[in-house]
Amino acid sequence: MRDAVIAAAVRTPIGKGKPGGALHRIHPVDLLAHSLTALVDRTGIDPALVDDVIGGCVTQVDQQAANITRTALLAAGFPESVPGTTIDRQCGSSQQAVHFAAQGVISGAYDVVIACGVESMSRAPMGSNIGSGVDRRGIRFTERYPDGLVPQGISAELIAARWGITRSEMDEFALRSHAKANRATVGGAFAKELAALPELATDEAIRPGGTLESMATLRPAFTSEAAAQRFPQIDWGITAGNSSPLSDGSAAVLITTSETAARLGLTPLARLHSFAVAGDDPLYMLTAIIPATEKVLRRAGLTLADIDLFEVNEAFASVVLAWARETGADLDKVNVHGGALALGHPLGASGARLLTTLVGAMEQGGARYGLQTMCEAGGMANATVIERLP
């Protein structure tokens, strides 16, 4: 039976996703091309051997429109014979790209494929692909949800209220994320995964040395009179400090079979073991990581205790804390090098970024199994189990 292995994984440093951010001047095509070029340079693979490039990008408008993955691989110097496609499963887009790539390899449709992702939130602001006055939901959708859905920030507040997560718990979790990311940066834990740019060598948003007192001064970011009336159970504790920042970045992963890797002289880093995707209540929106985790473990024939390290996307602190309470996972094994609260969350790139970081952390810690999951707008989540190879 064919397998799917990760032969290499790289990412750019993550920049602040605003006009003053370090990566704002880089066109998103060039941002993704940088990771693709780094992947080829590090492996020495002939890009003509790549059967397909599958990329994730959420805000596919303006500079990120018209199949940015194909444009980026051509910008990276790949032969014109190499195809590419761009997919959107919201924040999990490039994790889904990994799933599609691995499934293609296992099925025999591909021998060598790249899964990747990009988002320049400073150039293509979140939501800018939804035109003014456009009703994107339709009559039948609104009939099913007559009360309407809410922005993700309010979903994060609803999660905190449902699981009894306090403002101080969320702030403490965020501070730990920054501390872990800073230790990883200073200690060189990201050295192998980073493909530095002239504009930025390390992740820009990490803020070491914060305190609970300083976090407490931040105002809730999503409250309003109308929202407070609709959701009286919310204590309103989601702030800029315990939410992931807007970000720019890209990442890329080379996926092939063990047999093809050996033939090409590549050393596999990990085997892509099992995959799952799940849906959940779109009002709570960010909770599908809970059933997705259960689903992927069942498919893998593993238990939570078998997993050595977890990467759970820190879109909001409340999301990871609710997941940990529901699953019973040990937070000491979660995002050991920090998460999106500190590193940033360049939407379409985050799935590949988390996988790149997880592979590196597993290698450094001698872990066997790792599990990655991320919440996605619309009430979805992807989950992936990988196994480090000796």
From TrEMBL:
InterPro entries: Thiolase, Thiolase-like, Thiolase_C, Thiolase_CS, Thiolase_N. Keywords: Acyltransferase, Transferase. The active site is at C91, H345, C375. The keyword Transferase applies. Residues 266-388 form the Thiolase C-terminal domain. GO terms for molecular function: acyltransferase activity, transferring groups other than amino-acyl groups. It comes from the Bacteria. It holds the Pfam family Thiolase_C. Residues 5-258 form the Thiolase N-terminal domain. NCBIfam families: AcCoA-C-Actrans (TIGR01930). Belongs to the thiolase-like superfamily. Thiolase family. This is Acetyl-CoA acyltransferase. It comes from Rhodococcus maanshanensis.
